[in-house]
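Supplementary Note 3. Input sequence used for the single-chain structure prediction.
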Amino acid sequence: MQEPVSIDTPISDEVVEKLKAGDRVLISGVIYSARDAAHKRLVELIKEGKNLPFDLTGQVIYYVGPTPPKPGMAIGSAGPTTSYRMDPYAPSLMAEGLKGMIGKGFRGQEVIEAIKKYRAVYFAATGGAGALISKMIKKVEVVAYEDLGTEAIRRMEVEDFPAIVVNDIYGNDLYRQGRERYKKS
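The predicted structure, written as discrete structure tokens, is reproduced below.
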């Protein structure tokens, strides 16, 4: 099995070009949390020509609604949310410079096309491992939409956050490829 690739945020086009579906990665730097309610607000700001609460250029958004932290922890359990709920908003965010998304599950065809067009990447985090993943999140602060509670946008400093490339800029889809390999065996 291939060793994980270490990548730092913000992510550049050069890094995205090297990533292929199936690659295991360890992400370090800053990522942002956001789910559908926050995505809707971000896209509304874009449509209105207003400034976003953070610069999307080269950034990664993790689809997560974390639980409250235990004493001494930066965050509580932080497992991935099903990604298709963000599909209506993802292309607009990629057009503004978003380079990576982390979640679980399939993405729609419009998102896959936007990944190719805007040179972005979709990563999967392991569902059911929220308590383990939270240990890779070192610092957290709410940056927007505090009224959304767990769905507020958070700036999270991560170290060696484990993920797998599902959709790359070349149109590859790890989920579909895996299904085809299974059918052939």
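The chain is about 25% helix and 25% strand. The beta strands are 5-8, 24-33, 60-62, 100-103, 121-124, 137-144, 153-167.
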